Amino acid sequence: MLEVALRHRFDALDLDVTFQAPQGLTVLFGRSGSGKTTIVNAVAGLLRPDAGRIVVDGRVLLDRAQGVDLPPHRRELGYIFQEGRLFPHLTVRRNLKFGAWFAGRRARQAEFDRVVDMLGIGQLLNRRPGALSGGEKQRVAIGRALLSAPRLILADEPLAALDAPRKAEIMPYFERLRDEAGVPILYVSHSASEVARLATTVIALDQGRVIRQGPAAEVLGDPTVLPTGARDAGAVLTARIAAQHSDGLTELDAGGNALFLPRIGGQIGDSVRVRIAAHDVILSRARPDGLSSLNILPGRIAELRAGDGPGAMVALDTSAGRVLARITRRSADALGLEPGQTCHAVVKSVAVAPGDIGA
């Protein structure tokens, strides 16, 4: 458990946050300038806040009231930056060994071969950072942080400097890190897709304050806390792979509903997360017939919220989870939509981007 209570004042930001981050991957989520990196740097010991207390698994890293302020090298944390920040004169192997050396006695608990295998960097061990791609550098940076046997891993927008193909390459390794490393992670992002795929807990920030916290499905379903408002709203559904079809589609079992997506990797029975953007969902009062779309999720309207402009957000509770639909107010009026009514969400298979599907 990570416990954070911080107050710090800048010219352009008055930070005042309190939150707890349980085991797993916790995302600090919000617009640029909301205080995400300030919090991470305070946890790392790179910034001394005006007031606060930081505790990791019962170990006090900072308590300004009691005069406790451990230096960064004694906090036993791993930090993954936007750029890999590898030592250019060392090979990948020696960069990784530096992390193990930094752990001191705890290095004996770190399994070098297991980390190398988990991150798929065995073939890179004899190269120097100048010969690596951006995604490869980030994998090595993850390995170096993990081999320091940290109590907590900090990741400050680690995918922000990568192009789309490199992001797609490295995202599965963060999923493995979350699921297999056994180390809690505090992760900074302003990308709804990253949050949907990776987060077990989301701390939503705005202007230095915590405005909401909870599971990714709950936070991403609230347009009022998203960096770009309704444009980023969407549902996060958990499903299992039911079949791999010969026509290139994967069939998921989403709460007893069949959900068809373009072929995704995995075995029958594997659990996956799927983010369905609200603007990719259309609604029908009756179950539609004669449509090209394969995905139809019946449910009941839980909430209907009109925006300031022509749009409206409809939250539909289905057996697969809560689904959001962003439609016009005119459409809502024409259909006579009201909370409590039965309705059907229609989703095109090809509307779900590969980056919105994760383990």
Distance between the termini: 23 Å
Radius of gyration: 22 Å
Number of separate helices: 8
CATH superfamily of the largest domain: P-loop containing nucleotide triphosphate hydrolases
**Order of neighbouring strands in the sheet with most strands:** 7-8-9-3-10-11
Number of domains: 2
Structural class, from helix and strand content? alpha+beta
- What fraction strand? 35-45%
Number-wise, the strands total 21
How would you portray this structure in words?
- The chain is of the alpha+beta class.
- The protein folds into 2 domains: 223 residues, Rossmann fold, CATH 3.40.50.300; 125 residues, RNA polymerase II/Efflux pump adaptor protein, barrel-sandwich hybrid domain (OB fold (Dihydrolipoamide Acetyltransferase, E2P), Beta Barrel).
- The chain is 22% helix and 36% strand.
- A 6-stranded mixed sheet has the order 7-8-9-3-10-11, sandwiched between helices. It has a 5-stranded antiparallel sheet with strand order 2-1-4-5-6, with helices on one face.
- Helix 4 runs parallel beside helix 5.
- The two termini are 23 Å apart.
- Keywords: ATP-binding, Cell inner membrane, Cell membrane, Membrane, Molybdenum, Nucleotide-binding, Translocase, Transport.
- InterPro entries: AAA+_ATPase, ABC_transporter-like_ATP-bd, ABC_transporter-like_CS, Mo/tungstate-bd_C_term_dom, ModC_ABC_ATP-bd, Molybdenum_import_ModC, Mop_domain, P-loop_NTPase.
- One of its GO terms (cellular component) is membrane.
